[in-house]
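Hello,

Our lab assistant flagged a job as stuck in the queue for most of the afternoon. It eventually completed. Since we weren't sure the result was trustworthy after the delay, we are filing this so someone can double-check. Below is the sequence as submitted and the structure that was eventually returned. Let us know if re-running is recommended.
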Amino acid sequence: RDLTPERIKYMLDANLNSAFYCASAALAVMRAQKGGLLIHTASMAGRVVGLLSGASYVAAKHGVVAMSHAINMEEFVNGIRSTVLCPGEVATPFEALERTTLP
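-- returned structure --
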């Protein structure tokens, strides 16, 4: 019910697009050196769909996990590996802050 085009864009930019931009920059260097390891941070929301995290966050984090799998399939010939850390839910004040400051 809280999704707006602005909030969706913010969530995807912060959690998915930023990971792609970082990976793209790092891959250019790693290809030249013929090796490297990318370590991404996603969330358990990137592995398990649930109501708590919200649709846009779950979609973004699933995207990060899928990106890492695709990088492994595409870049193994260049000696590049990719992995994702998926921490679980933690109690932080972020949820309250997010509700008051996001567009």
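-- support follow-up --
The delay was a queue issue, not a problem with the job. The result is valid. The chain has three helices and two strands. The mean pLDDT is 89.
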